[in-house]
Specification:
This protein is of the alpha+beta class. The chain has ten helices and 17 strands. The chain has two domains: 239 residues, Aminopeptidase; 88 residues, Beta Barrel (Elongation Factor Tu (Ef-tu), domain 3). A hairpin with a 6-residue loop joins β16 and β17.
Length: 354
């Protein structure tokens, strides 16, 4: 599974440009699913028919990553750009990027430090004051290599570090995609939809469309989430900790997770001796935010892999946490086979019996 994760993170797929990621995943799941289709917005939806009908589970992991889009050219050949998704401006100067389908190499530049006034040195450089340098000396040269609207992505190679850790771009959420690929090699009693969604980083758009189409009884989002166990942060303010297992959330900026489903997943982890932790902050969000409010509502939970330095070219993940996430998703689905009645909706409207 780690080989698949490496290959997934090496592929470029900024929000709105997920085609290469989608084609890779289609090849990986071929022969393991009863149906795979691409909807109008670009989601890849894989279906596995259960042994019995009447209960539908949706899994969701997003294919897109944060990046940039080309918005203009300067007369001296530099490229102006804007972010696609949430990116910390502080990390950008000096970062390597690849621009467009031709993967033109470039460097994010800004005004040199030795030319900054004292007050400028004390401020974070804004993206409007940055540019991508691809080595051109004229606007014509740059326009021959890059087109307006081209995407740019961080250049970063998957690397194993230290003790059971890896560094890569796009662990959010190619880690989730790798888990879903592995899950699709199993079959369950209920109908299962594994949704590889698009445009999560710019508004959870793909998940909203997918959930509306599928109408699941419950949904579990597989995600890469923030990890803040670093110097300068007190332990009580940690979001998650590297090496402590898959992370469950109670709520975040976009979702209030179903308590019964979250408890079910947590108890499944304990029953199967799978490392698990709770996310201790309520910031951020994921596909669950749109799935939860689809149609008459969906009971949702998220199982996440903690990642340091998320939304950067150097996200760091513990391999054991990745494996814990995969094991917990599989164990939860197996446990659900004997617990469907507990989660079944009543009637056609989605209400619970009271």
């Amino acid at each position: 599974m780690l080989d698949i994760l490496k290959e997934l993170t090496d592929i470029n797929g900024v929000s709105g440009d997920e085609g290469d990621v989608r084609e890779y995943i289609k090849k990986q799941i071929e022969g393991y699913v009863d149906e795979a289709r691409v909807d109008r917005i670009g989601n890849l939806i894989a279906y596995k028919k259960g042994k019995t009908s009447g209960f539908t589970v949706m899994l969701s992991a997003h294919m897109d990553e944060v990046g940039f889009i080309v918005t203009g050219f300067s007369e001296n050949g530099n490229i102006k750009f804007q972010p696609v998704g949430g990116i910390d401006e502080r990390i950008l100067p000096g970062k390597r990027v690849l621009v467009g389908k031709r993967k033109i190499p470039g460097i994010i530049g800004s005004k040199p430090v030795h030319l900054l006034e004292k007050e400028e040195r004390e401020k974070v450089v804004k993206i409007k004051d940055m540019y991508i340098d691809i080595g051109c000396d004229s606007k014509d040269c740059a326009e021959d290599l890059v087109k307006l609207g081209d995407y740019a992505v961080f250049f970063s190679e998957f690397t194993e570090l230290g003790n059971n850790t890896v560094k890569a771009k796009a662990l959010d959420d190619r880690a989730g995609c790798a888990v879903l690929i592995e899950i699709l090699r199993q079959r369950f009693d209920f109908d299962l939809y594994a949704c590889f969604t698009v445009q999560e980083e710019v508004g959870l758009r793909g998940a909203e469309v997918a959930a509306y189409s599928i109408r699941p009884d419950i949904a579990v989002v597989i995600e890469g989430t923030t990890c803040s166990d670093v110097p300068g942060i007190s332990r009580q303010n940690f979001s998650t900790e590297l090496g402590k297992g898959a992370a469950l959330a109670i709520m975040d900026r976009t979702s209030y997770y179903d308590k019964e489903l979250v408890d079910f997943i947590y108890n499944t982890a304990k029953k199967n001796n799978i490392d698990v932790q709770f996310k201790q902050t309520t910031t951020g969000g994921n596909d669950a935010g749109k799935i939860q409010t689809s149609r008459t509502g969906v009971r949702v939970a998220a199982i996440s892999v903690p990642c340091r330095y998320i939304h950067s070219p150097v996200s760091i993940m513990n391999i054991k946490d990745f494996e814990s996430c995969s094991k917990l998703v599989a164990a939860t689905l197996k446990e659900l086979e004997s617990s469907v009645d507990m989660f079944k909706k009543a009637g056609n409207g989605g209400e619970k019996n009271v």
